[in-house]
Amino acid sequence: MKRSSDQDLAIGELPRSRAELVADRQLLDSMSGEMYRARDHMVGFPVNLDFDYRHLARFLAVHGNNAGSPYGSSEYRLHSKRFERAVVRFFADLAGAPAQGAFGYVTNGGTEGNIFGVYLGRERFPDAVLYASAEAHYSIPKIARLLRMEHEPIATDAAGAMDLPALEAACLRHGTRAAVVVATVGSTGRGAVDDLPGIRRVLAGAGTDRSHLHADAAFGGLLAALGPHPAPWGFADGADSVTVSGHKMIGSPIPCGIVLAHDRHVEIIRVHDAAVGADDDTISGSRDALSPVLLWQELRRLGRQGLARRVNRCLSTARYAETRLRESGRRPERPQGSNTVLFDAPEQAVCEKWNLLSVDGRAHLITMPHVTEEDIDRLCTDMNHAE
Ligand SMILES: Cc1ncc(COP(=O)(O)O)c(C=O)c1O
């Protein structure tokens, strides 16, 4: 059966009766009510629902547009590029990008960041093979098709990270061809982190000296940077470009993300003065001016310390979930430093209520900032009652 949120709607013709207008209002009220209530049971998706930007609602009555590069200005004056640059600077510092020569922009999500990173690699090395772990995000094979690149999925180890001997064998098989490698920092399925310095060592050992390493840190970048055991994920660890999500650990009503790269590499794809008075060095032309304002506001509110506290709270809730699920006999497992807990899936009705996806009988619980210990207790109670 279709959920109410999946049922088709029609626009229809004017004039509308008063009853129809009231029904429209009720429809919108009931949808927003449903979305707000869903927060109490949303434990299976890597999105944060703990934010409130309603005081910025005035930006909903104006068309902002950050078309073209965030650097420099625009002939379209209603833009938020200085907010965008501040957000990019924050993430560039976090990812260890050089103070001079770093480029970045606010994307419409992790996929656009991955397209940008791989595109940059492909333009630097047109003969490159695209290597990514078999557990990389589903956007990666699509990007390979989009950019007409040969794609080599690399097997993963027991923890779900890219198997380095398998990468080495694949590089050797491709001889002198260049490599674009996507390292996943926090895999969508189980939060696994690929070993960036290890990948660099493998490339050097295999004689693949023309390479571009893109870190897809959409999910795990902030965990890797700010958790109690920081993991290599950024420029100092060998990345040439990095994707981070804006709607996962930070939170936004609109999907968004940040992509970072070395400006000297971006110069290869840049078309000067092509985008309403700005350089064209982004994937999209017209770009959302609201997300940079929201991200700027939230980063100003939290700062690096507040974000670190948030990350640590997520990890502490994940540890709590592991304990409670073990007590419930659900065989939980969680990679170190990850907020994803895999466990034996409960029955379908419980999965649906708690928005849990399951693969091969294992569900994944993700302790994003809005998920509390009380939520975990309620989930365990539901699972125990359902048995
Ligand atoms: C590791 C990883 N990369 C990329 C993405 C894609 O992000 P988006 O859905 O914002 O395009 C996701 C989303 O879940 C992800 O987990």
**Class by helix and strand content?**
alpha/beta
Overall average residue pLDDT: 96
Bound molecules: pyridoxal-5'-phosphate
CATH topology of the domain at 59-299: Aspartate Aminotransferase, domain 2
CATH architecture of the domain at 59-299: 3-Layer(aba) Sandwich
- As a percent range, the share of strand residues is 15-25%
- Major sheet, described briefly? 7 strands, mixed
Shape: globular
Q: Provide the CATH superfamily of the domain at 59-299.
A: Type I PLP-dependent aspartate aminotransferase-like (Major domain)
Task: Identify the strand order in the major beta sheet.
Answer: 1-7-6-5-4-2-3
Determine and state the CATH class of the domain at 59-299.
Answer: Alpha Beta
Q: Which regions contain 5 or more consecutive residues with pLDDT less than 50?
A: none
Q: Please tell me how large the radius of gyration is.
A: 22 Å
| Number of helical elements | 11
Question: Whole-Å distance between the termini?
Answer: 24 Å
Order of helices and strands: HHEHEHEHEHEHEEHEEHEHEEH
Number of strands: 12
Helix share of residues? 25-40%
